[in-house]
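Internal ticket #5521
Category: modeling
Description: The requester needs a full-assembly model to guide mutagenesis choices. All entity lines are attached below as received. Residue total reported by intake: 1112.
Assigned to: D.W.
Attached entities:
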Amino acid sequence: MKKLFVPIILSLWSIVAIASGDLAAFKAKLVEKSLLTDIVKLPNRNIVAVGERGHVIVSEDGEKWVQSEVPVSSNLTAVHFIDNRRGWAVGHHATIIHTSDGGKTWFRQLYLPDLEKPFLDVYFRNGKEGIAIGAYGLFFRTEDGGATWSEEFHEEFLSEDDQFYLKDLRLDDEEAYENERRFILVHFNRIYADGVTLFMTGENGMLSKSNDMGRSWIKLPTVYIGSFFDLIRTQRSSLLAVGLRGTIFKSDDHGESWHRVNSKSTSTINSVLEDQFGRLVLVGNGGAIMVSTDDGKTFRSVPLDGGEAIVNAVPHKNKLILVTEAGIKVIEAGAL
Amino acid sequence: MNITGFVNTFEVAIFRHRSAVLGIFTLLSLFFLYQATQIKLDAGFMKNIPLNHSYMQTYLKHREDLGGANNILVALCDKRSDIFNKRFFNRLKSVHDEMVQIPGVNKSQVKSLFSPGTRFVEVVEDGFAGGPVIPADFKPDYDGLSIVRSNIEKAGIIGRMVSSDFKCAMVTAQLLEVNPTTGEKLDTITFANTVEQKIRGTFEDKSVTIHIIGFAKMIGDVANGAKNVLVFFAIAIGITALMVFFFSRNILLTLLPITCSLVAVIWQMGLLTTLGFGIDPMSILVPFLIFAIGVSHGVQMINAVGKQVAEGKSSKDAAQSSFRRLLLPGGVALLSDTVGFITLLAIDIGIIRELAITASLGVAIIIFTNLILLPVLMSYVNFSQKYKDRVSRPSQLAEEVWRFFALFARPTASKVIIVIMIVGFVFGFIRSLDMKIGDLHAGAAPLHEYSRYNKDTFLITDKFAITTDIISVIAEAEPQSCTDFSVMTLVDQFQWRMANVEGVQSTVSLASISKLFNAAFNEGNPKWRVLPRNEQTLAQATSRIETSSGLLNRDCSVMPILVFLEDHKAETIERVVKAAKEASKVLDSGKVQFKLASGPVGVMAATNEVVSSAQIPMMLYVYGAVIALCLLSFRSVRATISVIIPLFIVSTLAQALMTKLEIGLTVFTLPVIALGVGIGVDYGIYILSSMSQQIRDGMPIPQAYLIALRERGGAVLFTGITLAIGVSTWVFSTLKFQMDMGILLTFMFIVNMLGAIVMLPAIAAVLWPKNKEQRR
C-alpha cells in the first residue's frame, strides 16, 4: 500500500494559529451541562471528559467536576490517556492538545483551522507513538509524543476507480488533484485497539483493521451503507460494530463475515462499552441506551429520561457516567 | 398689585356676579358632562414603554424585521387524556383557523401544529427525510394520530407547540401594531375581548380548557378589572358622603362639597375627551383621587363658612370671607398637588405622562369648583338657627382633643417627638435603601397572582418550555453575516456567556440553531455540533433557518440572541443586563455589535432603568416645587421647614413600607410618592397658614397651635380620613397595582395627616424658641 506523507513543521503552524486569534476556553459554570463528546477513566479512577468550546473537565469522584486550563475553544471530540498523567484530546479545527498532569492543564500540539476538518478520535500506543483520525480521511501520526505531527493520506480506502481517477487528474491538473484529494476520503470515526490490532470504523459502512499501528489498513467486507461509529471486542471474542439509525452488526469470525442484530430502534448509536457487570451497553441519540447480557445477540432498550443524545459513557463504581448533549448524566448501572 | 389686593378684587368680582358665575359653571359642566360620556378606555403597548430609552430604540428599529414583544399565546389542554384524540385535534384546528381571522393578528405568523411551517426533519442513511408534522392527508383516527405523534417527536417542537406531558398544545400569534391596509392602530382592548369571546368563549368546555396569555390579553384583563373600579367609586362616594354628613350634620352642607367634587371629576373627564385623550386603565384611579381631594378642600370651605355663620355673619358674607381666607392656602395647596403631578412628566413613559396630565388637570379644576363654585353656592344657603347654635357651641370633646394635641408643642414633648422622629427616620431610611426596583413577583405584575391571567401564565410556563420572561440582545452586523464564521462565532460566544449568567434558564440564537443543523447534516452526530468554518457549509446550515423564526432578518444583518430568564425580578434583570453589557464590551468588534434589548424583559429592563433614574429627579422636583410654594406663601424659612420635614419623613417611611410589603418601585408605584407629597403638604399648609399670623405676633407655639386646631383641626383630621377612605377601597381591587397604590396612598394620607398634627407643632416649637420663652 502506498502512503503519502506530508510533513508539517509544528512551529510554523503555531504562529498561524496565534495570528488567527483563537481564544482560550471560557471558564463557565455550565460546563458540566454543556455538550460533552467523550469521557475516559484513568487507572487512578480519575475521570476526564471533553466537549464543546474546548471544555475539559476532571473529576476524582464522578460527582464534582473541575474545568481545566485549555488553550483552545474549538469543540473537542475525543480524549485518550495512556497512564494517570499523559493524555491527548482532539477536535475541530484539526486541534490536538496534550496534558502531562492528568488533565489539569493542557498545551496545544496542533491547530490547523484552515484544513476545515475535525479530528474525531485519537489513540496512543505509548508515550511516543500515536495517531489522530478524523473527517474526510484526516490522519495524523506522531512518533515523538506529539512534538511533531505528520499527515498521512490513506489511499487504500479509495475504490480502484477513485484511485485511477486521482492518478489521471494529477497528470492533467495538479491543483484540481489537490482539491479533489482533500475531501475524497470518507470520515474516519473511531479507533478501537484490540491488543496490537487496531480497528477503525467510518462512513459508508467502513470497517478496517491494521496490525502495524495504522500504517496500512485492511478493509473488512462492506455490509452496510451508513456510518459505523464504534466497535468492540466482546468477552466471547465476537466483534460488534454499531452506527447510524440503530444499526448493530456482529461478527463471530474476527470480521470476515457479519450479521445484523436487531436493535428495534432507529436511534443512531454513538458508542459501545462493556460495563462493570460485563454487559454490553450501547448509547446513542435520543437518549438511547441498549443493554445485552448475551454477548450482543439481543438488546434491551432502557432509554434515558429526557431523551438527550448520549455520545459515550464509562462505568464508575455502581454507576454509569454518560456524556451527553446536556453534559454529564449519571445513572445506576444496576437499574439497567 | 399685591396678592391680597388681587384676592380682594377677585372676591368682589365673583360675589357681585354670583348668578353669572353659576351660569358659566352650569354651561361648562353640561358641556363637559356630554364630553365625559364620550370618553374611551385607551390602552396601548407603546404607551407602556419608555420609547426614548436606548434599549427601546433598538427594539423599535428591529421590530419590523424580527416581530416584536407583542405576542399572544393560546394553550389548549385536554382535561381527560393526552391530546391525541379526534375531539382535541378538531378543536385545535378550529382555534388555529379562528386566530388567523381575528383582526390585528399577523396572519402569516400564526403558529401551531396546523401551520404549514411546522415540519419535521430526520436523518436517514441517504440524507434527510421530512415533511409537515400534520400530513396533507391527515385524518384524526388512530393511525393518523400515531403518525402525528411520531412526527412531533422528530420535529423537536415538544415544549413549544406541544407540552412535555402531551396534554396541551399551543397556538401562537404575533400582533400588528398598525393595520397594514387601513393604517389604524391596534385597539388592544377590543382585540383582547375578541380573543376572549371567539377563542375562550367558543372553544372552552369541560373537556378542553383554554389558557390565553400575552401583553394584549393582559391589558384586556386589566381594562376589565378597571371597570370594577366604578363599584369602588360608588362605595367611596357613599362613605365619604356619610363622613361629610357626620362632620357637618347638615344634608345640604353634605351635598354641596360632594356635588362640587363630582363636578370636578366630570370636568376632568370631559376635558380629557376634548383634548383628545382617552382614559388608560392604568390611570383610571385618578378620578377617585380628584374626588377625594375635592371633598377634602370642600370640607375646609364648609367648615370655614359654618364657623363664620355661627359668629353671626350672613351666608353671603361668611362665604365671601371664607373664600378670601381659603383662596390662598387652598390655592397653594392645590397648586402644590398640581405641581406634584406635573413632575411626573419628567418620566419618559407614556402612561405616566398621561397620569400626570390627567391628574394635574383634575387638581387644577378643583381650584375652580371647590374654591370658587362651592363658596358661591354656599352664599345662597339659609342656615337654620339650630345649625348656628350647634356650631357656635364649642364641642367639649373636640376642645379636649385639641388641648391634648396642643401638648405636642410643649417644650419637653416637642423634644421627645423630635427624638422619636429622628429614630423613625433613621429606621425608615435604612429600610428604604432595600426598596427594589421593578416587579418582585412572578406573573403579570398589574394582576393578582390568583387572577385567571396569571394562573394561565403559570400553567403555560409549567407545561411548556416557554417563559414570557425573555430578553433578547440584538447582534447587528453587515448584511450576509450568516455565512461569516467570525461573526457567527462571536454570536455563539456571546450566547454562551449569557447562558452562564445566574437566573438565565436557556438561550437560543441563529448560531446555536445552526450548530444543530450542521450536526443534522452530518448524520445527527453530536460531534459535528459546531459552526462550520467553511463558508458554503455554514451557509448550508444557516439557510435552513427561516426569518419567521425571529432569529435573523431578511439579509441576515440582524441576529437576536434570545435569553430566557427564570423570573423578571429586578435583581435578575439587572444581573443579566450587566452581564450582557460586559459581554458586549469584550466581544463587540468592527463586524458585529451587541445591542440591548427587545422582548418583554427588555421592555422591563428599560422601564426599570427609567423608573430608577427618574426617582431622584422626581423627588427633587416635587420637593423643590413644594418648598418654593411654601416659601412664597409663608415667607418664612422656619415655617417651610416645619411643613417639609414631616413630609420627607413620611415619604421615607412609605419607601420602607414598600420594602416591607414587597412592593417594588414601578411605573405604578413611582407616582404614589409624588402624589403623596403633593397632597400630603395640604395638611401642613392649612394648619400653618392658620398659625402664621399669631406666630409672627410672638404668640407661644402651643397657644397658636391650639387656635389653629380650633379653626381647622377638625377639617384636617376629616380630610385625612376622607382621602384615606377614598383610596383604601382600592385595596379590594382585582388589579394588583391598584391594590399596591391603594395601600401606599392610604398610608401616605393618614401618616401625613399625623405628621401635620404631631410633628409640625413639635418642629415649630423648636424653631421658634423665643415665642416659647415669652410664654414663661
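Resolution: model delivered.
Comment from assignee: Chain B has a mean pLDDT of 87.
Ticket closed.
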